[in-house]
Amino acid sequence: MSAAGLCAVVVVVFFMAFYLLHRYGDLRKQHSLVLLGTLLSWYLCFLIVFILPLDVSMTIYNQCIHDNSNLTPSQTQGELSDSAPFQPSSVANVCVKPWSYIPHHVLPVFWRVVYWTSQFLTWLLLPFMQSYARSGAFSIVGKVKTALIENAIYYGTYFLIFICLLIYVSVHLKLRLTRSELQTISITAANTWGLFLLVLLLGYGLVEIPRSYWFSSSNSFLLAKTYFKVAKLATEKASAEENLADVMEEVVDLNESVRFNHSLRKCVDTILTKCPIRYQEEMGRNPQSSHCEGASFPTRSGLIKLHEKVISAVQRHNQTHVQWSLLLDKAFHLEDIAKSQGSQMRVVTRTFSPNHLGWVRRFIYTPTVEWYWECAFRKTFCRLLAVLLSLLSVAVVWSECTFFSAQPILSLFAVFVQKAEQHYNYILIEMVCFVSILFMCVCVYSTVFRIRVFNYYHLVPHHQTDAYSLLFSGMLFCRLTPPLCLNFLGLIHLDSAISHQNRMQTSYTSIMGSMRLLPVIADGFYVYYPMLVVLLCIATIYKLGSRFLNLLGFYQFITDNEFTSELVDEGKELIRRERRIRQRAEDGKNQRWAWRERFRVLATSERSGADYSELDENSPETEMRTSVNRSYGNIEEQHTGLLQDNSGDDSFPNRRSAAGQYLSFAPSLKGLFDDV
């Protein structure tokens, strides 16, 4: 493999990160710096996960060379990995070079660049860009000033706590605090913070992911949950519309009070560019219509706050409308599946014809194939996958509770890796490492994509995620991935600071430094805190977190809850109403098409009759035919005008649709960075 395979992994991981960014972000509307920072943070984190199994196989290969020679571990890592002439023939016969062999000098440099770049992003650049994106200031200098002040307050507190702990550790452990020791302490502090959050997210994902696949095998469960989401989203949609209307009233009053010769008029014009088009047109038609001489003028700080409110209200309004449209399509699809389950023709009959059919749905995923998948195979497939994922979850929980035991080896992942190591089966080693660490990453990352912190952080698919949430997700990934990889290396007993085994370290661990410098962290927190995942899994099984949120008024879908049943019934009624509205629109479209076809046939017959008749222009027959054609043209214009679909929305001119799936109401957010 050497260079070719490593380059292939790098390219594949890049396209995977780019696809996720395309799904959640808007590549056409959002600022390029926001997209670049998010893409780089996601890409580096995914790259660590995919390259770490190769590092494990290279470490086992170097350990084999060390065990079959009289050299020290440093000599084994430094010379024998790249210098075949120094290897004895017996070593070359016993230690088979991995198919994924990477030269020794590549991985340390690679890990150093990837790790420190991700840490620079998560602790310095991305927080600054977050504050910059949320700032309502009207100049670059104002945005930079706001971002610096917010980050100085937030991270200054962290820095003060770190200095106090550093002084305590240096006095208590009598450390000399050299440059390498300071670097190790800083890395350990960052990994400790990440591990604290990692266990919380992992405990939720280990239960929720298998359970979600098990319940998704039932179409009735999915339909009831969709009704529940529709009822909740209807409330959020109404609240977002009301909030936008209130904010627009403030903007209208501001536009009427600040005249065009005022010094703050440029700031008002900047705010107007962030408003929906229909509000801009209304204010353009009625400029300063009700200006009062005694009205108080706003201050610049008040305009900055109003600017922030406008950006937030418009973004939330667009998100709810896109989610509403997609959720309705999902509900209609599930209802069609439920009606087609007993079909004798074994075809999924859709109530509404899709606007656009891609080549996949036309030639591969036909209605017959869809029926067999949805009604025959999906239930069995989802349940088998749920059972497989449940076994992986049990293996992870067991290994998290027993990985500190070196003799006997109780961690299941360590057992699998060491069994494959005895036969030097590098492919099996890499597959075990890749599947296990990928499953742990999916459990953690999927929780990051699902959680929602009020309206401040929420990853919304179909290009609706705002800049703040994208950057925040990149920060979380960069802080969670390094402790996740260290935890995985501890599960397979390749981290000597935890397993206390005298063996070679991976190149990734060598970059982190030795955690034995802080025995409280290495022998205490890193060993016993991951056991908390058992309690978190139990709490997730019984939905204790969801029940607690219900008590606080943040209603979650719980099957045995009375309020959930009420919301399901409410959502069902909303779907019925929307179905009737869409059905009327579909009927109007069909009638309009029938009228057009009818008049097209009449016009064709008139033209063909004119070719075979030679009537005089002033004859009564010619005048009658002219009047009939004129009347048909008028009727067609009337019907076309009356029945014309209003496919666009004045308030959302930027809406676009690809294959009826991805929608974007978001106005151009480049103004966030280009107000000057």
TrEMBL record:
<comment type="similarity">
    <text>Belongs to the LIMR family.</text>
</comment>
<keyword id="KW-0812">Transmembrane</keyword>
<feature type="transmembrane region" description="Helical">
    <location>
        <begin position="33"/>
        <end position="52"/>
    </location>
</feature>
<feature type="transmembrane region" description="Helical">
    <location>
        <begin position="426"/>
        <end position="449"/>
    </location>
</feature>
<feature type="transmembrane region" description="Helical">
    <location>
        <begin position="113"/>
        <end position="132"/>
    </location>
</feature>
<protein>
    <submittedName>
        <fullName>LMBR1 domain containing 2a</fullName>
    </submittedName>
</protein>
<feature type="transmembrane region" description="Helical">
    <location>
        <begin position="525"/>
        <end position="545"/>
    </location>
</feature>
<feature type="region of interest" description="Disordered">
    <location>
        <begin position="636"/>
        <end position="656"/>
    </location>
</feature>
<feature type="transmembrane region" description="Helical">
    <location>
        <begin position="152"/>
        <end position="173"/>
    </location>
</feature>
<dbReference type="GO" id="GO:0016020">
    <property type="term" value="C:membrane"/>
</dbReference>
<feature type="coiled-coil region">
    <location>
        <begin position="230"/>
        <end position="257"/>
    </location>
</feature>
<dbReference type="GO" id="GO:0071875">
    <property type="term" value="P:adrenergic receptor signaling pathway"/>
</dbReference>
<feature type="transmembrane region" description="Helical">
    <location>
        <begin position="185"/>
        <end position="207"/>
    </location>
</feature>
<keyword id="KW-0175">Coiled coil</keyword>
<feature type="transmembrane region" description="Helical">
    <location>
        <begin position="6"/>
        <end position="21"/>
    </location>
</feature>
<keyword id="KW-1133">Transmembrane helix</keyword>
<dbReference type="InterPro" id="IPR051584">
    <property type="entry name" value="GPCR-associated_LMBR1"/>
</dbReference>
<keyword id="KW-0472">Membrane</keyword>
<dbReference type="InterPro" id="IPR006876">
    <property type="entry name" value="LMBR1-like_membr_prot"/>
</dbReference>
<feature type="transmembrane region" description="Helical">
    <location>
        <begin position="384"/>
        <end position="406"/>
    </location>
</feature>
<dbReference type="Pfam" id="PF04791">
    <property type="entry name" value="LMBR1"/>
</dbReference>
